[in-house]
Structures are given as structure tokens and as C-alpha cells.
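Below is how a single chain appears once it has passed through the pipeline. First comes the sequence as given, then the structure the pipeline wrote out for it. We keep one example in the README because the format questions we get most often are answered faster by looking than by reading.
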Amino acid sequence: MRKIPENVKSEVLRLWLNGLNYRDISGKLCVSLGSISSIINEARVKSPDLDELRELNVKLKKLGLSVLDAIRGTRLLERMEELGVGLPELDSFIEVASRMSSERGSEFIESALRLLELEKRMGKTYDEIVKDVDGMESRVRELRAEADRLRKDIEVLKVDKAKLNKDAEAMKNDIRKMVEAKDKLKKMDLDKLETLICFAENKMLMEAEVKRLREEVDKLSRVKRELEKENDRLAEKGSALFTLKAMLERKAILVPCRNCGYLISLPLRTRRAYNDMISRGLAEVARCIYCGYTNWFSPWDVLINLAWALISTG
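Resulting structure:
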């Protein structure tokens, strides 16, 4: 027989104390009628007055009375006993009380008497009984929270189990392939096996040689890139030298137009001539043949362009 969890037992007992019958509890919690009967009988053994407590609780609910009403009734009976009001005078007292309060006075007194009798049998006050019930409900809530946590842990374990099963299946496949390879090797002749080993060794050597050649190719590629960069630099330098040579041969220097940037040819003069122009504040005047703009170049402008041409040759 499957063991019923403690939280389910507590819930069965709580529903039964609240007035539900076995069939309603079975439909609500999906527990068999026999299991419900066993749970309640076990609780009866521990608490002989359990049926009276259930009957009182159901009675109060049917009458629409609250626990506070029952406590008031108990206190009233205690006060009546203190005042010397016995059971023979109780009917008259109830009649008077019902006229003073409501039509439910007799039922109220009856519930109070039952509660008083229950307290005497159990040896506890109503507050202590309520505290015990609250403790049971608190325990039920704790058990529910624990059950939720366990369900989450079970889900995590299911995922881990599925992953482990997948890994185990992959390992089985690897082992199966290794066994098949071993069987194939056993069926092969010794000469074929030695040939296979030699081939494997040669393959390793070839792979090492290919790796070395690749490294050599990478090294040559780097050298090629460096040479291409050097070639570009020399080409730029050669272009600057060619420009400087042409300037010297033609005794002229190319200066960009201040308006459009088109190169204008100016005659190269002697150092003495440039010194004279500087001292006299003279300038070279040239008209751009591209945009028609008239440019004024000081000797310093010409000399700076000449210096830049010399620096470009490196």
C-alpha cells in the first residue's frame, strides 16, 4: 500500500473537521475512502474527543455562530454557576436571555455547554484548543511549501537524469565503436596491421612536414608584405626625386594655386635674388591657367615648397 504523505493526512483531517464527508474529501484530494477512514481513525486514537470537536465546529457553522459566540456562552455558563443558577432554572434563564438577545439564544447556550464539556474532557481551554489547531494548520502550510520545493527538486533531477542518460548513451556508442574496431583489428593479418601502423606513422610525419611548410609559407608571406611596403615607399621616394630632377632641369618649381590647388610653374632664382626680394618685400606674381586666379607668392612661399620637395626625397 502506498504511504500517504503527512501533508495529505493533515489536509484530510482539516477538511473532515470542517464538516466534509469522506466522499467529498476523496474527490477533493484524490485519496481513497479507505485511506481517509484510516487517517481519521488514527487521529481518533490520539484525540478521543475528535468527533465532539468536529460536531461542535459543524454545529457552529450551521447555526451561523462564530467562535467568539461560543466563548461568550462558555463564560456565561461559568458566570451562571458562580451566581448559583443551576440546570433546573436554565430554561427560564434561556427564555429571558432569548427575549433580551435574539431567537438563537437556546442554541447559543447549547453550543456554549458543549464547548465547556469539550474543554473539560480535553483538559484544555478553548484558546489552547484553537492554538493547537492553528499549529496543525501552520504545519500543513509548512508541509505544502516543503512539497512544492521537493517537486521543483524532482523536476531538476529529471532534467539531470535525462542529461546523464544522453551522456551514457553517447559513451555506450563510443565503447561499441571501440569494440568493433578491436574486432576488426583481430580479424586483420599481422602484416596488414604492421602496414597500417607504418601508414599511421608516415601520416604523422607528413602532417608535421605540412605544418612546417605552412609556417614557412606564413613567414614568406610576411616578408613579401614587408617588401611590398618598402617598394611602395621607394616608389614614392622615386616619384619625389623625379619631380625634384625635373625642377632642377627646368629651373622651375611647382607651387599650388591658392584658389584651386592647380600646380603653377615658377622660375627658380639664385639665393642672392631671393635675399634681394625678401629685403625689398617683392613677390612672385603668377596667373593660374586653370581657374584664372592671380597668385602672389612671397620668396618664403617658394623656398618652403622647395624645402618640402627636398624632404620628400628622404
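The chain has a mean pLDDT of 80.

See the next section for the split statistics.
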